[in-house]
Amino acid sequence: MTRLIVSRLATLIPLMLIATSIVFFLVRFVPGDPVRIMVGGQRISPANVENIRHQYRLDKPLLAQYGYWLNDLAHGSLGDSFRQRAPVRDLVLDRLPITLELAAYSFLISMVISIPLGIISALRRNSWIDVGASFFSLIGASSPVFFTSILLILIFAYKLNWMPALGQGDGGWDTVKHLTLPSIALGLSLAAITTRITRNGMIEALSQDYMVTARAKGLSPRSIVFKHALRNAMVPIVTVAGLQFGFLLAGTVLVEYTFGIGGLGSLLVDSVQRRDYPVVQGATVFIAIAFIILNLTVDILYALIDPRVTY
Amino acid sequence: MSAIATELSPELEPLSDTPSSWNMLFWRFRRNRKAVAGACIIGFLLFLMIFAPWLAPKDPLHGDLASTLKAPGEDFLLGADRNGRDVLSRLIWGSRTALGGAFAVVLISELIGVPIGIVAGYRGGWFDTIISRILDVMLAFPPLLLSLAIVAAFGPSLKNVVISLGVLYVPFIARVVRGVTLVQREMTYSEAAKAMGYPNRRIIFRHILPNCLGPVIVVSTLDLAYAMLDLAALSFLGLGVQPPTPDWGAMLSEGQGVLLTSPHLSLAAGFMILISVLGFNLLGDGLSDVLDPRQGQG
Amino acid sequence: MRSPILELDDLQVHFSTRSGELHAVDGVSLSIAPGETLGLVGESGSGKSVTARAIMRLVPTPPGRYAGGRILFEGKDLLTLSEREMQAMRGHQISMVFQDPMTFLNPVYTAGEQVAEAIRTHQGASRADAKAQTIELFRTVGIPNAEARFSAYPHELSGGLRQRVMISMALSSRPRLLIADEPTTALDVTIQAQILDLLRNLQQEFGMSILLITHDLGVVAEMCDKVAVMYAGRIVEEASIEPIFDNPGHPYTNGLLEAIPNASNDGAPFRPIPGSPPDLARLPPGCRFAPRCRYRQEICISTPPPMVQIAPGHDALCHFAGEYKKNLVEVPTPAVSR
After folding, report:
1. DSSP code at position A153
2. What's the predicted TM-score (pTM) here?
């Protein structure tokens, strides 16, 4: 297991380096003078411009800037925001918890929906529930998450008045309440795919010879389905869940924007709209790191579930 | 057990480029409900896109303030937006940015991805290793997020969004083409062709490209669904199509501001996105069943 | 004679398919005495595996259906038991060993866990207790290094060891009846002999009856007290071991014997049975074997044969049971319907 983690990390570090570098150079290719953009329309003396240029190291050659950026990154610094007088790291760390909560909540909801639905569909093939589940999968995969969000707001916030429509609450239970609709919206999108994978994985597992052995041993239907079939079906489920993290991260951006949640995603969108490059850069790097850590977790889980995986 | 196994499995004929196999494909296509439903939806959207100027009852860009947020009725079938513009006309015109944008994204990704995939798969060696690594890195990151960073750099516009998504979609196509090329290259007939002194170009055009056709069509169709979702998302965030150009994602976002009083603005736009993406998803799923019957059964 | 441990009485198992209702098991009757080994022989598609699974009520329904007859286990009809009662029987009173130990063991659990699971299910043993018992069983079935093998995954074991794991799982609750469905078919020849030896020894040690499903008459000769030959869903001959080999009462049995290279020492040439078993959806009106039979007469094609007693305990489903060889006017090339 340690070997797996080490070897994974070894391949992930260059990946991270490439991802962060792409972001860095991309931002440097911006047409126009960053200082002008930074100060917006304000009139400002040439001396001040030089000052700012120096402060943000924009007077250095590109490669030197890159060196500084990498050096800062290695020391855990992501530079300073153009617009807000604060280090990017603090801005990001400030916004991170709510995004993590949202992502975790969505993931939980998607699992709670998709795994039972997938199992039942596989056990009762071609029943109304199976047909319904595949319909749900298709619609869920086709509905943009922001449209689902708006439907949920209309129904549960405006019509039924069960949930707040916007915002992130003031912590504790209130936050859970505020995050419920956004998480359902994102969870439904995720569940659409996982349901399909669970169903197909279960059908595959249930058709295997070892299911006959399990029955011949005199096991109860429950342990046949949950212990013997589901454990095997978990292999494709985990693989897909891993692939979905990217989707989940992109989804949090949209959902946060739609529901007015001040997380990492809305920080990113705001910064893009205001062209606050250091923040865009920092937030992207942060998301990349999160993404990579999640992928590593999936690889480990994968090895735990399927003993045939060699590393 | 054996009793069940005696049932004959339905047609499993290999694809070849004889006319009868095209008929066969068409027959399978017509029998596939998903494919037909998807094709109908896409056909309808293409119709809207092409004939928008004749179909739209009003000018999508001009509104009068007197009809601001007018409810659906005789004058405005689907009501009017905040600027008093006809929602129905804007929806019809919106098919142009949505479909046109998605097609452009996928076309760009094919133009870059197919050659890359073929060269990487055909040459192999270090070239393939490097290309595959780069594709893996790109695949490891959701296109929407990278596209955000690119738009941050070059400024929000449909053109920038389309180009950035087009580039970011390259790995999806390239990976598939590379896989097919690898298999085809190993196939004996390609070996034989090479032994007989055929130039590489001929092997690529006669053997590899035709075999890539099916998988590329399937992946492209599904990519169209993703591209529509990503384009709509970026417009929804205000980073894609810029006002006043009619676009479903942007309309959905505009409608959100008046969701409580005029929910039909967002609903109509969202419904159009959903239906279009659904169309491409259905068609893509159906086509993959039609083109690869071994996977489609069950 | 002692009362049988298992008795099939006119068992009918049907499958509904697109081409109609298939009678995969069509009126099978047989019985196994305590401590006895019965070989059930036939080509693939003869219904022998369905019969085996039907006894355990493992035939999936639908598409399968128990259409008639009784399965008497120690006098109790298994077809009348509830699913829950049947569960308690499986792996406890009746156990099964399957053909391919690779695909029949769950790849994501260790060999030991899978055996221990059966012990815990039927004996309510604790985890630790079940583990100790499993390791003991592993030793009994001749798995070297039993303790370490407890935590080996199926893919880490050789074919022979996997089959030993399967056997230890089946024997974990000391069943009265063991159904072995082609237990050696997927194994190397040298391993086959070892596994058969093991089964024979364990049978004596545990005092159980064995229903051995095989297509290999060599295995039957080595293992069984009695043989039932199955063809197209029916038992066509039943006898104890010597008469079957010395004087097969049914042309099909005769054909099977002739099809074994060097099986008979009378110098008869190796002669495979032409054709293949009939399509269960389109059975011939008379004897089901007639289209492939060298000795067939008019009556064979038109009229289903009766079960004829050749000697006490030796019956064959043939118009000319035991005497078919007299018919040999040698049909030059049998009309084979393919």
Report:
1. I
2. 0.81
Distance (Å, whole) CA C88 – CA C98: 19
CA distance C337 to A182: 67
CA distance B114 to B217: 12
Q: Within 10 A of A55 (CB to CB), how many other CB atoms are there?
A: 11
Burial-class residue B11 by CB neighbours within 10 Å (0-12, 13-18, 19+).
exposed
Q: Report the run of H or E that residue C228 belongs to, with start and end.
A: strand C226-231
Strand C234-240 and strand C226-231: the pairing is antiparallel
**CA-CA-CA-CA torsion sign (A214, C124, A305, A183):** positive
**Order of all β-strands in the sheet with C20-32:** C20-32, C6-17, C64-73, C76-77
Q: Which amino acid is at C56?
A: M
Using only C-alpha atoms, chain B has a radius of gyration, in whole angstroms, of 23
- The 3-state DSSP class for residue C309 equals strand
In whole angstroms, give the CA distance from residue A134 to residue C309: 59
Query: A14-18, A98-102, B128-132, C140-144: which has the minimum mean pLDDT?
Result: A14-18
- Any bridge partners for residue C22, and if so which? C15
Could you report the per-residue pLDDT of A38-59, keeping only the tens digit for each? Answer: 666 566 777 777 887 777 777 7
**What integer is the mean pLDDT of B67-82?**
72
**Which residues of chain B have a CB within 8 Å of the CB of C279?**
6
Please enumerate in sequence order all residues whose Cβ is within 8 A of that of B159, keeping only pairs 6 or more positions apart, or say none. none
**B115 phi and psi angles, rounded to 5 deg:** -60, -40
d(C-alpha B286, C-alpha C103), whole Å: 32
Residue whose entry in the numeric block shows the structure tokens 């750099």: B153
Tokens read off for A51: 């000052």
List pLDDT tens digits, range A82-117: 777 788 888 888 888 898 899 999 999 999 999 999
Q: What's the token pair of residue A132?
A: 């319904």
What is the side-by-side order of every strand in the sheet holding C209-214? Answer: C94-97, C177-181, C209-214, C37-41, C226-231, C234-240, C314-317, C307-311
Which residues 153-192 on chain A approach chain B with CB closer than 8 angstroms? 153-154, 158
Structural contact between residues A263 and A304, judged by C-beta atoms closer than 8 angstroms: no
**Closest Cα of chain C to B30: distance in Å?**
23
Give the whole-angstrom CA distance, residue C33 versus residue C74: 10
B3–C49 CB contact, under 8 Å: no
Closest listed residue to residue C211, CA positions, set C25, C23, C56: C56
Contact by Cβ (8 Å): A18, A24: no
Cα-Cα-Cα-Cα dihedral sign, residues B42, B43, B49, B50? positive
pLDDT at C273: 79
Cis before B244? omega within 30:
yes
B145 contacts A253? CB cut-off 8 A = yes
C279: nearest CA in chain B?
Answer: B6
C135 or B80: which carries more pLDDT confidence?
A: C135
Instruction: Identify the pLDDT of residue B76.
Output: 67
Structure-block tokens of residue C39: 């070989």
B93 within 8 A of B60, measured Cβ to Cβ:
yes
DSSP conformation letters of C7-75: EEEEEEEEEEETTEEEEEEEEEEEEE-TT-EEEEE--TTSSHHHHHHHHTT-S-TTTEEEEEEEEEETT
Residues 11-50 of A with CB under 8 A from B: 15, 18-19, 22-23, 26-27, 29-31
| Max Cα–Cα distance, chain B, nearest Å | 77
- The answer to whether the Cβ–Cβ distance between C58 and A209 falls below 8 Å is no
A157 C-beta neighbours (distance < 10 Å), count: 18
Please compute, for residue A280, the number of CA atoms within 13 A of its CA located in the half-sphere on the CB side: 28
